[in-house]
Specification:
Arc Repressor Mutant, subunit A; two-stranded antiparallel ribbon; 10 helices; alpha+beta; 4-stranded mixed beta sheet
């Protein structure tokens, strides 16, 4: 809990300054200093970018935050800058590989939209980090799509998730994310659309609520997003399963996956670990 002097300083702050302070406290959990423009984007209060630098200087003069070169943080930790810049450089390299895997994922049956999520979507990868994908599928075929993607990873990538971690799947009938909180809003607003910009925009529209948590997030340039394309082999596979057999297969794969998840969780529930 802040001491009395710090509490007095905080009570005298403007709404914009409190918002900036809250942003740095939140990001400080990840030991990730921010540039002024990034602080503006992550701030949970709608404000002009013109107030950011003067507010940062004022907060730094009060000793509530710290300037670390071109960055700002809630703690005076200069080593965070080197860690951040190392992670940024690693992310740039990893993104080049991730783009190739995005194209591959788009070839899979029933995949309709692919985005990059997780730390890479924020331009940072730490040592041992991987590429997380947010995938939207055809309704009623999510579990088939997931099984094919996970099967590919296990067989052809020897179960390595470094460049192929299917982190989150939804279908086109369930675009709205039910968990409405600041963490989920941040993940939604920082997704990097990679395949089918049109469906990505529909997803954002269905999750308009997330702007209340991050109202200053800039609109992304979608010119480099891979366009929706129908591949003949993908189309053939989907046609073969666009019937009751496909319904039964998707249901069976869902039940099988749930059973396996239950087997993994059961030892923890029984106190084995």
């Amino acid at each position: 809990m802040p001491d009395t002097e710090t509490q007095t300083k905080i009570q005298a702050l403007s709404a914009e300054e409190i918002s900036i302070l809250e942003t740095l406290i939140y990001i400080g959990i990840f030991k990730y200093p921010l540039k002024p423009s990034e602080i503006h984007q992550y701030a949970p209060f709608a404000m002009s970018p013109m107030v950011i630098v003067p507010s940062l200087n004022y907060l730094a003069n009060l000793g509530l935050i710290f300037q670390l070169g071109n960055y700002y943080a809630i703690d005076d930790q200069p080593d965070w800058v080197a860690l951040r810049e190392k992670g940024n450089a690693a992310a740039t390299k990893m993104m080049k590989v991730a783009k190739r895997y995005v194209r591959l994922i788009s070839w899979f049956p029933f995949v309709r939209c692919v985005c990059i999520s997780g730390s890479l979507s924020k331009g940072y990868v730490d040592e041992g980090g991987d590429v997380d994908y947010f995938v939207v599928t055809e309704p009623g075929r999510l579990w088939i799509a997931r099984t094919l993607l996970i099967g590919f990873k296990k067989i052809f990538l020897l179960n390595s998730k470094k460049y192929f971690c299917i982190n989150y799947l939804i279908d086109t009938n369930h675009l709205e994310i039910p968990d409405q909180n600041i963490f989920t809003a941040t993940e939604i607003q920082t997704l990097l659309p990679m395949y089918d910009a049109e469906l990505y925009n529909k997803f954002l529209q269905r999750n308009e609520w997330s702007k209340a948590f991050r109202p200053n997030m800039k609109t992304l340039d979608l010119s480099d997003v891979l366009p929706k394309k129908r591949y003949w082999l993908k189309g053939l596979f989907e046609t073969l399963l666009s019937n009751s057999m496909g319904d039964a297969l998707d249901s069976w794969m869902m039940k099988l996956t749930m059973k396996r998840w239950g087997e993994k969780v059961r030892p923890f529930q029984q106190g084995v670990f």
